[in-house]
TrEMBL record:
Lineage, broadest ranks: Bacteria, Pseudomonadati, Pseudomonadota, Gammaproteobacteria, Alteromonadales
Start and end residues of each TonB-dependent transporter Oar-like beta-barrel domain: 330-567, 568-951
Keyword vocabulary terms for this entry: Cell outer membrane, Membrane, Receptor, Signal, TonB box, Transmembrane, Transmembrane beta strand, Transport
Motif extent (TonB C-terminal box): 976-993
Signal peptide residue numbers: 1-34
Membrane topology, from the record: Multi-pass membrane protein
GO biological process: one example: siderophore transmembrane transport
Domain TonB-dependent receptor plug: 143-242
Identification of the protein by name: TonB-dependent receptor
Pfam families documented for this protein: CarboxypepD_reg, OMP_b-brl_4, Plug
Zinc in keyword set: no
Family from the record: Belongs to the TonB-dependent receptor family.
GO terms of molecular function: carbohydrate binding; siderophore uptake transmembrane transporter activity
InterPro entries: Beta-barrel_TonB_sf (IPR036942), Carb-bd-like_fold (IPR013784), Oar-like_b-barrel (IPR057601), Plug_dom (IPR012910), Plug_dom_sf (IPR037066), TonB-dep_rcpt-like (IPR039426), TonB_rcpt_CS (IPR010917)
Length: 993
């Protein structure tokens, strides 16, 4: 077989190298089929003289499934085959009067469009070729502006990377890990709750909070695509990035295998913790170990027609934690499984069905520590269940050579149940010393039961018309969220010593107890619908325009079933242009603009629009019993935050408010330098144009009452009732876009008729929500030698504003849409600055060296600058918005209720992110893989992953609580409170046959 250098990239010896060059560098996912996890092959057939050839026949055959697709070239010699199962293909091109050409082992991946251009020779012009010699095979998709990276499971098996969506996404430029408090990945400056995750076209994003994907059996995954920008109109409901997965499936040849994996405690270094004296110690008394097994089978039930893949994946994690007085033993057992059936009904019609489970059980035992520090009497047992089932069916139809239709329906159910612990005992926390101290032998805060369900379907149509590839579709999604929570005992007690200037008017040092009684019982619903249309227009042979628009509608219901969020008119334009600079498909200059909308989280339904009860009873604390329970004196105050009824829908959402959305602008250049190396540069600007936040409306409401009270028009107005009698105090939640005026309906005067309450932006008192992200990404990938592949990137970025987004890292609020940001105007004083996901410099380098055909060494490393540090303290009553709040309401709730939650220290302004940064973080992970090939008897593989090889102990977070609610200085301020994960080892043995 003859072949050019371009074809040699796809020789068996260089498969990994070729994929590294072809997929790592901001590669552009095509508009077609990306959401379904299917591939695209496109190209142009010309004559030897360079003119286009129409009506040439292109036949491709999947080499392991045997399925065949064929098409003919258009007037300009181009062809496009969409909806292709991933894998290797044999391509045959023929036309009367020309020699036939054929090429084998052409790898089609998800996302990236494979470009296959070839020149045909006239018969009689020379020696007939049975293989392509003048072809150009390129993964620089000059037709798209989506920045993405595709990596296969075979590549991941040679890298020291944990098999989860977060770890894989972190390989891409522009992504940083979320704070240790709740993990996840921030893409393009977004919060970790603003990404979308898909498996075979099914939305597998966490149903309730959107923080990552649901738990999956990762051995079943074949390829992962991470889209970090320029995302096409078929995707929506996120403003961060997209992680799309495609599963393995059966082939004509039956295959079986098994794998056992362990991360042993004996090979894991102890975690670190900061002591009260500021020194760091190793937590040598802890225990952590994971074990996992995989058993699978796949093959053809009917050759070339019906294929099966099945996997069983039990997983177990065990931990032991030692507290000052307790020992906690925890065990999670998850019995995951996955199955997929693919039926190629006809050469033009196919149906794929998948199903999976991630159901599991948790057991927690808590013991008293005896005199020797070991396990004493058992305190309590907690048993719970979690997880559920997911499935979908995907139809693909090739209606004509130019029209492709896909339709998908799927469901996911995830639930938890925990009705254990010490049900009759309240929880007791002592904060009188200024730090949290647990008292008593209670186990668990309350009993809970949740059930969440996502129902989704979509239909997509592709139509190639000359130089235009049109794509249009409709998708629907319904989320059903059910939640029951009952507190144990009386509720949650906290003990305090009053500060010098406390909201209860107590003498300094007076001890008091705050009993919080909180619970809920609610069912709510979110519905998301969207229509989109896009066009990929080849203006010339070297210039392509991508234009599209997505129209979407979002709604949320209360626990009574009434809509309180009903957002429509959400038009999201997506526009991009590419230029094949050299005209050879090896380079691309591109630019893109896109608008992305984010729905209101289902979590907000539960926190704001459910049948919840929440009250605080504050009493003098006369003493504490031996079991931690309080000896209560006189009651000081009683505050009801929620009385157990479902709030009225028409007062929960500002009538003037619009959707949460972000704009992205990007420009980049990509160049495949030669057969071995590719480079890229990309500039990105993202701007959160509008956010939706929960705010307290009481300041604005009370100003409106003062301005609008009229004794002649108000039913109770007779000169004896003052406007202040109708004041709304404390927490009065409303969803709005901060910085705008607000209109709601509320029965202010109690006559049974709701008034239209309309206040302006100044009366609301909130600044506009702001978040900008600026970045320059440089990257490269290639082959140092035939056996050594290398991928690297450097990202300079800056993330600024006054909101991180749906969640808040600096106080570990994994509570999308319901954080303390914007609760009261005074909490936003000095709130503009560097955001928690601002990592100014980020270097990444990973690669694989094939020492021999059987033994490889892989590594993954990064160098990252630190995150901004804050100082949280008590808001001075005579500064910022507190002055206006006291004038309006007689109190400043952001100070009196929230304590040390403001950007102040010692009564002085401490702007967001202005207190320095944490140290740089260095990390190197190592992988070693050895395979024994027994030919017909199968292959045996041994693999060792060592994470944090040199056991670096960088500080990833510090205590940002500058002072306590009492105003007293926190001596632990600035102390490290989170560190790099210490070195640990994950070893596996695998057998395939």
């Amino acid at each position: 077989m003859s072949g050019s250098n371009a074809l040699k990239r796809f020789s068996p010896k260089k498969t990994l190298a070729a994929l590294a060059v072809g997929s790592v560098l901001f590669m552009s996912a095509p508009a077609a089929m990306a959401a379904d996890g299917l591939g695209v092959m496109q190209g142009r057939i010309t004559t030897e003289a360079g003119s286009n050839l129409s009506n040439a026949k292109v036949i491709i055959k999947h080499e392991s499934k045997g399925i065949v697709r064929e098409t003919t070239t258009g007037a300009n010699g181009s062809f496009s085959l969409k909806g292709l199962p991933i894998g290797k293909y044999t391509v045959t091109i023929s036309k009367d009067g020309y020699y036939q050409v054929r090429e084998q082992h052409i790898a089609v991946t998800m996302g990236n469009a494979l470009t296959f251009d070839v020149a045909l020779d006239l018969e009689g012009s020379g020696v007939e070729r049975i293989a392509v010699s003048g072809a150009r095979i390129s993964r620089v998709d000059t037709s798209s502006t989506t920045a993405s990276q595709v990596i296969s499971m075979s590549e991941l098996n040679q890298l020291p990377v944990e098999l989860d969506a977060t770890a894989i996404a972190l390989l891409t430029p522009g992504s940083v890990a979320g704070d240790d408090g709740f993990g996840g990945v921030s893409i393009g400056g977004s919060s970790v709750a603003e990404n979308g995750y898909y498996l075979n076209g099914l939305n597998i994003t966490d149903l309730r909070k959107g923080m990552g994907d649901i738990d999956l059996p990762w051995e079943a995954i074949a390829q992962t695509e991470v889209q970090t920008g320029g995302v096409s109109a078929e995707y929506g409901r996120f403003i961060g990035g997209v992680v799309s997965l495609v599963s393995k499936s059966g082939d004509n040849e039956w295959q079986f295998g098994a794998k056992a994996e362990i991360a042993p405690d004996s090979l894991a270094e102890p975690s670190l913790r900061m002591k009260d004296d500021g020194t760091i110690e190793e937590a040598k008394d802890g225990y952590w170990q994971e074990t996992e097994y995989n058993i699978w089978a796949s093959g053809a039930i009917i050759e070339d027609k019906l294929f099966f893949y099945g996997l069983w994946n039990p997983f177990e994690e065990e931990t032991t934690g030692y507290g000052e007085n307790q020992i906690n033993d925890n065990e999670w057992k998850t019995n995951r499984w996955f199955t997929k059936v693919d039926w190629f009904i006809h050469e033009d019609h196919s149906l794929g069905v998948m199903a999976f489970s991630n159901e599991g059980d948790y057991t927690g035992n808590e013991y008293q520590r005896d005199d020797n520090g070991g396990r004493g009497d058992e305190i309590g047992l907690t048993e719970s269940t979690y997880g559920g089932i997911g499935w979908n069916a995907l139809y693909t139809g090739y209606l004509t050579d130019d029209i492709t239709l896909t339709a998908m329906y799927g469901e996911i159910t995830q639930s938890t149940k925990d009705n254990s612990g010490t049900l009759d005992q309240s929880t007791y926390w002592d904060l009188r010393s200024g730090s949290w101290e647990r008292l008593g032998d209670w186990v668990g805060y309350g009993s809970s039961e949740t059930e969440d369900k996502r129902i989704t379907y979509r239909i997509d149509l592709d139509w190639v018309i000359g130089d235009h590839t049109l794509r249009a579709g409709y998708d629907y999604e319904r989320l059903e969220i059910a939640d029951i929570y009952t507190p144990h005992g009386d509720g949650w007690y906290e003990y305090f010593a009053a500060g010098p200037d406390n909201s209860y008017g107590l003498a300094e040092g007076t001890e008091y107890a705050d009993l919080r009684i909180w619970g809920k019982n609610s069912e709510t619903e979110n519905v998301h619908t969207a229509l989109y249309v896009s066009d990929t227009w080849e203006v010339t042979d070297t210039v392509t325009i991508n234009a599209g628009v997505r129209y979407s509608e979002f709604s949320n219901t209360t626990g009574s079933g009434d809509k309180y969020v009903d957002l429509d008119g959400q038009f999201a334009p997506r526009l991009g242009a590419t230029w094949d600079v050299l005209g050879d498909g090896a380079s691309k200059l591109y630019a893109s603009y896109g608008r992305y909308f984010q729905p209101v989280s289902p979590n907000t339904n539960l926190r704001m629009a459910s049948a919840a009860y929440d009250s605080h009873i504050v009493s003098h604390l006369d003493g504490v019993n031996a079991d931690g329970s309080p000896i209560l004196g006189d009651e000081i105050s009683r505050r009801v935050v929620a009385d157990g009824s479902v709030p009225d829908a028409d007062q929960l959402f500002n009538n003037k408010a619009g959707s949460m959305y972000s704009d992205e602008f990007a420009i980049g250049y990509q160049q495949q330098v030669n057969d071995d190396w590719a480079v890229g540069v990309r500039g990105v600007y993202r701007d959160l144009k509008q956010s939706i936040e929960d705010v307290s409306f009481n300041y604005g409401m009370n100003q409106w009452i003062l301005e609008n009270y009229d004794a002649n028009t108000w039913h109770a107005g007779n000169g004896e009732t003052s406007a202040e009698d109708y004041f709304v105090g404390g927490w009065f939640p409303t969803l709005t876009n901060p910085g705008i005026g607000t209109e709601i309906y509320y029965d202010v005067d109690g006559d049974g008729v709701k008034e239209t309450v309309n206040v302006n932006a100044d009366q609301m008192g909130f600044p506009e929500a702001e978040r900008t992200y600026k970045a320059i990404e440089l990257s490269f990938s290639g082959n140092v030698t035939d056996d050594f592949t290398l991928n690297g990137s450097y990202t300079w970025s800056k993330s600024e504003g006054n909101t991180e987004g749906l969640v808040r890292s600096d106080n570990e609020q994994a509570d999308p849409g319901w954080t303390t940001s914007f609760d009261y105007p005074e909490l936003m004083d000095n709130g503009d600055g560097y955001l928690p996901n601002d990592r100014r410099h980020n270097f990444k380098l990973y690669g694989v060296y094939n020492v021999t055909d059987d033994f490889s060494v892989g590594f993954n490393s990064y160098l990252q600058s630190g995150r901004p540090i804050n100082a949280f303290g008590v808001h001075p009553e005579d500064q910022g918005y507190c002055v206006q709040a006291v004038a309006i309401d007689g109190t400043c709730y952001g100070r009196d209720w929230y304590g040390a939650s403001s950007f102040y220290a010692d009564g002085e302004a401490a702007p967001r992110g202005s207190m320095g940064r944490t140290d740089w973080i260095y990390n190197i992970d190592l992988n070693m893989s050895y395979t024994m090939d027994f030919n017909e008897a199968g292959r045996l593989n041994f693999k060792l992953n060592v994470f944090n090889l040199f056991n670096f102990d960088g500080v990833t977070g510090v205590d940002e609580q500058y002072e306590f609610d009492s105003g007293a200085k926190n001596i632990r301020y600035g102390y490290a409170d989170s560190f790099q994960t210490p070195r640990y080892v994950r070893a596996s043995v695998r057998y395939d046959f």
